[in-house]
Design goal:
This is SS18 N-terminal domain-containing protein. InterPro entries: SS18_N. Belongs to the SS18 family. Residues 14-72 form the SS18 N-terminal domain. The chain has a domain at 18-67. It is built from two helices and no strands. The protein has 80 residues and is an all-alpha fold. The chain is elongated. The chain starts with 17 loop residues before the first helix and ends in a 13-residue tail after the last helix. The protein is 60% helix and 0% strand. It has helices spanning 18-41, 44-67.
């Protein structure tokens, strides 16, 4: 099961670490690989299930990003 699933009573109370975010990104990578494999095999039902999990993870990560304070990129090429 995806690590994104959090019971309603705990939502909004968990602290998000860089490790948790990396786990989600790694999980998303694996989900994309599974979706691709199942698409090639013509297994649409499995694709949809994995796509739903991937969508949930992406929305969760976007929510975290939106809630995070704006930070200056560390890349020197982004300076004006």
């Amino acid at each position: 099961m995806s690590i994104v699933f959090v019971p309603k009573r705990l939502r909004g109370k968990a602290k998000i670490s860089q490790e948790t975010i990396q786990q989600l990104l790694d999980e998303n990578d694996q989900l994309v690989r599974c979706i691709t494999e199942y698409m090639q095999k013509g297994r649409a039902v499995e694709c949809v299930q994995y796509q739903q999990i991937l969508h949930r993870n992406i929305v969760y990560l976007a929510t975290i990003a939106d809630a995070s304070p704006d930070t200056e990129p560390s890349d020197s090429s982004s300076k004006v």
